[in-house]
Amino acid sequence: MRKLPIGIQTFRKLLEENYLYVDKTALVYKMVTTGKPYFLSRPRRFGKSLLLSTLEAYFLGRKDLFKGLAIEQLEKEWKVYPVLHLSLNAKFYETKESLEQILEGHFIQWEKLFGKTDEELGYEERFMQIIQQACEKTGEKVVVLIDEYDKPLLQAINNESLMEAYRRTMKAFYGVLKSADRYLRFVFLTVSLNLHK
């Protein structure tokens, strides 16, 4: 009898450790072949992070993880794309620096894969450079996956000055996704609905 995947947010772990998985990969395939930008808003514990992990595995060409699932038969090429996966879910955002640390950590990780950027630039310009460099280095358009895109804003909702600082930073950061369209293969952002008044 398979284990229930309670709290499992990683597609690879779910399959490799034989958790129960309801195969919805045919829908994943339809999504990635018929659209480009997506925004998913669902309550907590609805599988958003697991979906992003599934998309990441797909775009990294991990055919081995999809053995026996519907998408294995649907996908013929299994191309490998550069994936920029940013999760804003795992931190408590109390200060401007806490958001900056998360972004800086991801930039450093991506730069190891796709080349250094000018650290004197702001987040907007560095993110754009990373996307462009990832596309040029790999010869493939870039996949951007962002989990809980608005969490810093929600945690600063009662602190007007911190909220404004977060808003400025994130507006510039997300604005890149529009101007970098020619370098992007797929963009997916998630947000948790706040059901509490």
What portion of the residues fall into strands of 2 or more residues? Answer: 5-15%
Q: Tell me the distance between the termini.
A: 40 Å
Tally of strands? 4
Unreliable parts: none
Helix content: 40-55%
**Which structural category fits the helices and strands?**
alpha/beta
The average pLDDT value, as a whole number, equals: 86
Q: Per the principal axes of the C-alpha atoms, what is the gross shape?
A: globular
Radius of gyration based on Cα positions: 17 Å
What can be said about the biggest beta sheet? 4 strands, parallel
How many individual helices? Answer: 8
Largest sheet: spatial strand order? 1-4-3-2
User: Can you write the helix and strand succession as a string?
Assistant: HHEHHEHHEHHE
SSE topology sketch:
Layout: H1 11-16, H2 25-34, E1 37-42, H3 48-59, H4 70-74, E2 83-87, H5 96-114, H6 123-138, E3 142-147, H7 151-155, H8 160-179, E4 184-192
Parallel strand pairs: 1-4, 2-3, 3-4
Folded structure, characterized:
With 197 residues, the protein is of the alpha/beta class. 47% of the residues lie in helices and 13% in strands. The protein has 8 helices and 4 strands; from the N terminus they run H-H-E-H-H-E-H-H-E-H-H-E. The protein has helices spanning 11-16, 25-34, 48-59, 70-74, 96-114, 123-138, 151-155, 160-179; strands spanning 37-42, 83-87, 142-147, 184-192. Strands 1-4-3-2 form a 4-stranded parallel beta sheet, sandwiched between helices. The protein starts with 10 loop residues before the first helix and ends in a 5-residue tail after the last strand.
